[in-house]
Design brief:
The protein is built from 11 helices and 12 strands. By secondary structure, the protein is α/β, with parallel strands linked by helices. The protein has a domain of about 190 residues: Rossmann fold (3-Layer(aba) Sandwich), CATH 3.40.50.
């Protein structure tokens, strides 16, 4: 089997390649990315999802495509990049696959398609994205839905992970854990809002599971590692793993949002992207719990507990 990973030079892709090489050495792996891989340069070919001709050339001989490439940060500019990469990139990938006779795809979408403060949404809940990233991911899924209507022989697996964390990641969870571990953490709100998270080791294991076992039909899965932690729980576990007392200052939500809007204005004035914004405050304080019943019923067994993943991450990043 030849697996082509589009966008595999990043955090999740690098871990996925490592997992595939460790568990299935007989698999032929190709990484297609606009940037070279710092770890797997020998199996990486440079191509962009916006260039359908280069994708078509690289996908020759592939059996399965794993589409990871995405614009996903909170502060992408211009906003049109979300739609160029996430939506047009999907269209280009499907066109390149069809030209090469490749009929299996695993696509990493996002729970952002549900929007904020939904009550434990399952895969059947109607989409209601609140930002351009969520809208673009949902539009990419809609492209797949329409494609499947005329390509029912294809195997399409869509994975909607919640926020992913792990060793080496420098995303929102890392930033939060870094603030907590430093002792300079400021809690906005009561800290009892629960957040679903996903450890990268489990996410890539589930992608491998989909490739191996979900070989027919059109399937959509939320991916969440349970139990869900409240922000207060993250503070406790961080202190416990690192063996330190972590004081926290609580600010009311309205004051935190006011500060976020202030940073929005400051960023516009000085023309820089700041680490604090109203969007990030809103996301920090939101309840982001998602239903994982479908994954748990699929036969997949997680190689790590959420506590294991958090402990491994904290020790790797802050345990010195």
């Amino acid at each position: 089997m030849k697996i082509a990973i589009i966008g595999g030079s990043g955090f999740v892709g690098t871990r996925l390649i490592a997992t595939l090489l460790d568990t299935s050495p007989e698999i032929d792996i190709l990484n297609i990315d606009k940037q070279n891989s710092s770890r797997y340069a020998e199996i990486t070919r440079i191509a962009n999802v916006l260039d359908v001709d280069s994708l078509t050339a690289q996908l020759k001989g592939a059996d399965v495509v794993v589409l990871l490439a995405a614009e996903h940060k909170d502060n992408v500019t211009p906003i049109s990049l979300y739609y160029d990469v996430n939506v047009q990139g999907m269209k280009n990938t499907l066109a390149a696959m069809e030209k090469n006779g490749v009929g299996r795809i695993v696509f990493t979408s996002s729970v952002a398609v549900y929007g904020l403060n939904k009550e434990n949404p399952s895969e059947t809940l109607a989409a209601d994205p609140f930002n351009d990233y969520g809208h673009s991911k949902w539009q990419a899924e809609q492209v797949l839905q329409e494609w499947y209507k005329t390509h029912s022989e294809w195997n399409i697996n869509i994975l909607r992970p919640t926020v992913i964390f792990g060793e080496g990641n420098r995303g929102n969870v890392y930033n939060l854990l870094h603030q907590i571990a430093s002792g300079k953490f400021m809690m906005i709100g009561k800290g009892d809002n629960k957040k679903s998270m996903s450890y990268v080791g489990n996410v890539v294991a589930f992608i491998h599971f989909l490739i191996q076992h979900k070989i027919e039909g059109y399937n959509v899965y939320n991916y969440v590692d349970k139990p869900d932690f409240a922000t207060n729980d993250l503070v406790y576990h961080t202190g416990d793993v690192l063996g330190k007392h972590i004081p926290t200052l609580h600010l009311p939500y309205w004051l935190g949002m006011l500060g976020g809007y202030g940073f929005d204005l400051l960023g516009k004035i000085i023309g820089k992207k700041l680490t604090v914004s109203s969007v990030r405050v809103k996301k920090f304080c939101a309840v982001t719990q998602f239903d994982s019943t479908k994954v748990m019923a699929s036969g997949f067994v997680t190689p790590f507990t959420i506590e294991d993943g958090l402990r491994r991450t904290l020790k790797a990043e802050f345990g010195k």
